[in-house]
Amino acid sequence: MSNTSSTPQSLAPSARRVTSASEARGLVAEALAALETLDQTLAIETSLMRGGRIGEALALTDLKQQRAGAYMRLLESVKANAIALARFSPDGVESLKSRHADFGRALHLNQTVIATVKSVSESLVRGLQTELSAGKALSVYGPGAAATTLAPKSEPIALSVRL
């Protein structure tokens, strides 16, 4: 039997129950605020990636994950209270749906930029590897074949595939 202890903070969003219009508006406002901070972080990351500042963009990973986690926890609370929210704050629900759809488009753009950066990086590394190894190819068979010895001129390339 495992002993899992949960802190009240980790249970707060999912255990939350909306029973009034003010609680509904509060939950929607929290979810919108969390989505806004996540969207801002994503926009900064996208901008940095587009500008070729990959290291700076990667430095945002932990912050982005924290903000995404906070938003997802609030979204779970929204889902758990869907009926109450629709009853007490239908305009808030529509606003959240609309903002979430906008965020989906921004997320798609971010993923496209990251995929492009990854593809370009891989192409550059492959090209560099081809250039470095081009002079090292032995021609042993066929016309003009010659025995050559290769002098070690460079070290192997080491890559980090964090993207």
Please specify the SSE layout and strand pairing:
Layout: H1 8-15, H2 21-50, H3 54-58, H4 61-80, H5 82-88, H6 90-134
Helix pairs in contact: 2-4, 2-5, 2-6, 5-6
Task: Describe it.
With 163 residues, this protein is mostly helical. It is built from six helices and no strands. The protein has helices at residues 8-15, 21-50, 54-58, 61-80, 82-88, 90-134. The two termini are 38 Å apart.
Shape: rod-shaped
Question: Which sheet architecture does the biggest sheet show?
Answer: none
Poorly predicted runs are 1-13
The helical percent reads over 70%
Features:
163 residues; mainly alpha; 6 helices; rod-shaped
Write a short abstract of this structure.
The protein has 163 residues and is mostly helical.
